[in-house]
Amino acid sequence: MLEVTESARKAIKSAIDGAEQPVAGLRIMVQGGGCAGLQYGMALELSRQADDTVIEAGEVTVLIDPESQSYLSGTVIDFVTGLEGSGFVFNNPNASSSCGCGKSFC
């Protein structure tokens, strides 16, 4: 199961509330690419797919496609603000290594 911290939930809710169209949820996915071979992706989705894993995290809905599910199992998603900016951070126990940007892993 994926965990979404309170800080991340607030950031996701803000993005959904600011969308121009009604949104079904935030899709979190793993795609090939990045410095370490795999990278995280996020997108607001207008509709759910029949095979999506749906996670209700407080007031927000997170959607995960079947191919990304095994990579994201046990991951904690946080949203941090610091001197270098703000953004989502993925703490993924399945990653054997990650790059310095925090958006790519293998």
Radius of gyration: 13 Å
**What would you call the structural class?**
alpha/beta
Read across the widest sheet, the strand sequence of neighbours is: 4-5-2-3-8
Largest sheet: 5 strands, mixed
Distance from N terminus to C terminus (CA atoms, Å) equals 19 Å
Uncertain segments of ≥5 residues (pLDDT<50)? none
Main CATH class: Mainly Beta
Strand content: 35-45%
CATH third-level topology? Hypothetical Protein Aq_1857, Chain: A
Write down how many β-strands occur, each being a DSSP E stretch of 2 or more residues: 8
Helix percentage range = 10-25%
Quickly list its features.
about 110 residues; alpha/beta; Hypothetical Protein Aq_1857, Chain: A; 5-stranded mixed sheet; 2 helices; about 40% strand
Folded structure, characterized:
Helices cover 18% and strands 42% of the residues. The radius of gyration is 13 Å and the shape is globular. With 106 residues, it is an alpha/beta fold. The mean pLDDT is 89. The protein has a single domain (3-98), classed as Hypothetical Protein Aq_1857, Chain: A, CATH 2.60.300.12. The chain has a five-stranded mixed beta sheet with strand order 4-5-2-3-8. Strands 1-6-7 form a three-stranded mixed beta sheet.
Give a quick precis of the structure:
By secondary structure, the protein is of the alpha/beta class.
Layout of strands and helices, then pairs:
Layout: E1 3-4, H1 6-17, E2 25-32, E3 38-45, E4 53-57, E5 60-64, H2 66-72, E6 76-82, E7 85-91, E8 104-105
Parallel strand pairs: 1-6, 2-5
Antiparallel strand pairs: 2-3, 3-8, 4-5, 6-7
